[in-house]
Design a protein that fits this description.
10 strands; Rossmann fold; five-stranded parallel β-sheet; 303 residues
């Protein structure tokens, strides 16, 4: 089971602008109800975890407000061309920039991405790759420009936005008293999977990243590369239309790097879009549909 949505949504509300607030919300859907969930976890010899969790399956298809015509006019005025509700992709950004205390964190940049495409962000440290990812994730308000993600204003406080956009900007936080397999199964259940679906998705990812033998281990028992692979499994086990990754190849060996390439290509073939910051030359040549090099956009010191 590949937890990807096949189609990008049409825009449903105004573009984000410099007046949008930043958000500090969780990365998963709200939980409600009081079901007692039994997690039948993957892996030989594993005891099932009986955990009382307050959660409910994700409710899909929440409709947003209609886009006022002036927003499309604003978009065209920013140089976007003949934009229309039917023609926008998963990501549509024009002249998006971020400044803080007089410093340029992200120079003005344009980006278009459609379902099934993988875009790599490249450039030296500090050029704005992570900042652009944070803007797309709704974690950073742009200082100027216009951006729509999955047809919405980027705002990770909104459940319908979080359902469509997954991200990993660093290694995922792990609960020290839970095994790796328990983390994956609980994450999948939180996003509306059945127990059987959660088991299958978790076992499949652990196997493809060659850490199935570590399913019963706790986070502190893993190496740095193994923790990175487990972090990737945690974000990949949930559904998404857009996946944002900041240097996901960090600490991965060659075999797991190839596993990452294959997994992302499979997700893109299934309809998901991916934006990934990387320094890896191997990833640039192996899987990208496009490369956005930010190094030429940064003004020289003193300018």
């Amino acid at each position: 089971m590949l937890p990807n949505s096949r189609n990008a949504a049409a825009p449903t509300e105004p573009l984000a602008s410099k007046n949008d607030p930043s958000a500090e919300a969780g990365d998963h859907a709200r939980r409600g109800g009081g079901e007692d969930a039994r997690l039948a976890l993957p892996g030989p010899g594993m005891a099932s975890l009986r955990a009382r969790r307050r959660w409910s399956p994700v409710t899909p298809g929440l409709a947003g407000a209609a886009v006022p015509p002036r927003c499309y006019g604003d978009w065209v005025g920013l140089g976007g061309g003949a934009a229309s509700a039917a023609g926008w992709g998963v990501v549509a950004a024009r002249r998006v920039a971020v400044e803080a205390d007089g410093a340029i964190l992200l120079p003005a940049v344009d980006l278009d991405l459609r379902a099934g495409q993988i875009m790599l962000l490249t450039g030296p440290n500090g050029v704005g790759k992570t900042t652009l990812l944070r803007v797309l994730a709704g974690a950073q308000a742009p200082s100027s420009g216009a951006v729509a993600v999955c047809g919405m204003r980027p705002d990770r406080r909104r459940p319908e936005f979080r359902r469509k956009v997954a991200h990993m900007f660093s290694q995922r936080p792990f609960a020290p008293a839970m095994t790796i397999a328990e983390h994956l199964a609980l994450t999948a259940l939180t996003w509306g999977f059945t127990s059987d679906e959660a088991d299958a998705a978790s076992a499949g990812l652990l196997g493809r990243f060659d850490i199935a033998g570590l399913a019963d281990r706790y986070p502190h028992q893993l190496s740095l590369g193994q923790i990175q692979a487990a972090s990737l499994c945690l974000v990949l086990v949930r559904p998404f239309e857009l996946l944002l990754l900041d240097e996901p190849d960090h600490a991965l060996d060659d075999d797991r790097l190839r596993a990452l390439e294959a997994e992302l290509r499979t997700r893109a073939d299934g309809g998901a879009a991916v934006v990934m910051a990387t320094h890896s030359r191997a990833l640039r040549g192996a899987m990208a549909d496009g490369v956005l090099d930010l190094s030429g956009l940064r003004p020289a010191p003193g300018q």
